[in-house]
């Protein structure tokens, strides 16, 4: 749709109306199930390589005119797109809750939709000025940033709308057009958001294409795609790199993490327990930069384990549309099986389940109780591998240097955190962590102006803020005569 479509649209649209906009014709497409009830929500169109080629061609044709609008007009349209998301926030949140499983309340569905609007507004307001490199009698040289062209965006199922906006917002702001391929597990909510944004954006500036993973690989490999943004597993990230090699597309990859937290000696367990818990269990643990393993000093180990277990046992879990719940199901059966298998393996290797440690079939097929596992250590799969679910292993340590060495031994490095009753002490230790971001007395919090990205096998490239705008543009040096003496 183009901007003219707004005149025929009455907002707000509820989740049923949003679904009607994007789902396949009756009898066609692929069924999408409610993560909590396993009932059919709707049917998503199954598009093909030919459909992807057509979308890329349309985006390529639309890109020069979009870039020519200039930063001011593009930014104004991004603000209008944010307004459209806000106007339909409740319908989008309800569709997201059903498809992904996350509850409406807490740091979940309504929070995610609000973040989409906030990130778009920040993208619109962020200033990227030319950088003067040399300005003297002999030379004036500036570094400027121009649109790359067509951006291929491939988004995941855990924060499907928000991470899509992390890809879409800066790309559009810098004058690129975007073809986005949402996860096959959560396509409807992303397509609905794109549909709402396209009520105000020019035609073909933003195009959503749904289909199997193979069309995502085709998007990355397409010769008319100048930039690829991907958030997902390290395994798939490597495939994206291989697919993009032929066209030398620029890449931003936010890949898997196994984030470590370290609680320093003498820390007040009660003071940090709530923040520790949500650092690990936000979105029911299905977050790349959630805390996946927690190293705790002997002096406070029992207190921290007890405080976390008490919270885990009391936090309401259930259907996301119930206003009381703040934890939901695993989004899909594959992930449920991974989580359950890792807990069983930890038990077999001496892990002590303090709370949880089992499915919750009375809530639904994909629910797994919030779980704290104590008395495990490195070498156990639950510690060494990313569980991506509502389970936290707590590892005892005695020597601080050893704890940092063990935390850094992983081949991933997305985020990490250091916890102490003395924040200044924690700050002194923070730079010892091998990760793209280190938080002090919190974990996982993101800000649209603070760059975010991983190291090692957690990927490369920065998102957010000025650095995020640069990452979806191509640099150009403009060099000319200097000032005359």
Automatic annotation (TrEMBL):
Gene3D superfamilies reported for this sequence: Aldehyde Dehydrogenase, Chain A, domain 1, Aldehyde Dehydrogenase, Chain A, domain 2
Transmembrane segments: none
Domain of life: Bacteria
InterPro entries recorded: Ald_DH/histidinol_DH, Ald_DH_C, Ald_DH_CS_CYS, Ald_DH_CS_GLU, Ald_DH_N, Aldehyde_DH_dom, LUC3-like
Keyword entries, A-Z: Oxidoreductase
UniProt xrefs under Pfam families: Aldedh
Catalytic residue positions: 254
PROSITE patterns per record: ALDEHYDE_DEHYDR_CYS, ALDEHYDE_DEHYDR_GLU
Residue ranges annotated for the Aldehyde dehydrogenase domain, each copy included: 28-473
Protein family (similarity comment): Belongs to the aldehyde dehydrogenase family.
Protein name: Aldehyde dehydrogenase family protein
């Amino acid at each position: 749709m183009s901007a003219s479509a707004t005149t025929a649209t009455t907002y707000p649209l509820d989740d049923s109306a949003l679904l009607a906009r994007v789902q396949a014709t009756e009898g066609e497409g692929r069924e999408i199930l409610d993560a909590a009830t396993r009932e059919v929500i709707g049917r998503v169109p199954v598009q093909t390589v030919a459909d992807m080629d057509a979308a890329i061609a349309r985006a390529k044709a639309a890109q020069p005119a979009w870039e020519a609008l200039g930063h001011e007009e593009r930014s104004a349209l991004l603000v209008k797109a944010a307004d459209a998301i806000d106007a339909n926030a409740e319908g989008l949140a309800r569709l997201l809750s059903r498809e992904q499983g996350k509850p409406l309340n807490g740091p979940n569905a309504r929070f995610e939709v609000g973040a989409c609007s906030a990130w778009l507004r920040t993208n619109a307001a962020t200033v990227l000025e030319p950088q003067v490199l040399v300005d003297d009698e002999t030379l004036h040289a500036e570094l400027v940033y121009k649109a790359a062209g067509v951006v291929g965006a491939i988004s995941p199922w855990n924060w499907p709308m928000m991470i899509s906006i992390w890809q879409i917002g800066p790309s559009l702001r810098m004058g690129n057009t975007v073809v986005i391929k949402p996860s096959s597990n959560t396509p409807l909510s992303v397509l609905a958001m794109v549909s709402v944004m396209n009520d105000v954006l020019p035609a073909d500036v933003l195009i959503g294409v749904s289909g199997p993973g193979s069309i995502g690989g085709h998007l990355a490999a397409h010769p008319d795609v100048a930039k690829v943004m991907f958030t997902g597993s390290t395994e798939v990230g490597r495939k994206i790199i291989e697919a993009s090699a032929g066209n030398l597309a620029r890449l931003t990859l936010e890949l898997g993490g196994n984030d470590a937290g370290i609680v320093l000696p003498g820390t007040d367990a009660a003071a940090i327990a709530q923040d520790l818990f949500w650092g690990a269990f936000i979105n029911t643990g299905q977050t790349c930069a959630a805390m996946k393993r927690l190293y705790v000093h002997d002096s406070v180990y029992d207190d921290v384990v007890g405080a976390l277990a008490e919270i885990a046992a009391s936090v309401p879990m259930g259907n996301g549309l119930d206003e009381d719940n703040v934890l939901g199901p695993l989004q899909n059966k594959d992930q449920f099986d991974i989580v359950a298998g890792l807990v069983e393996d930890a038990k077999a290797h001496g892990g002590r389940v303090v709370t949880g440690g089992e499915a919750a079939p009375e809530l639904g097929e994909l629910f797994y109780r919030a779980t704290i596992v104590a008395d495990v250590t490195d070498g156990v799969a639950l510690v060494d591998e990313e569980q991506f679910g509502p389970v936290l292993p707590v590892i005892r340590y005695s020597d601080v240097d050893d704890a940092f060495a063990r935390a850094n031994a992983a081949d991933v490095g997305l985020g990490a955190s250091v916890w102490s009753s003395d924040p200044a002490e924690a700050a002194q230790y923070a730079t010892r962590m091998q990760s793209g971001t280190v938080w002090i007395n919190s974990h996982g919090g993101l800000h649209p102006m603070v760059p975010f990205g991983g190291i090692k096998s957690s990927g490369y490239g920065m998102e957010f803020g000025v650095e995020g705008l640069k990452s979806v543009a191509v640099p150009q040096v403009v060099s000319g005569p200097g000032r005359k003496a």
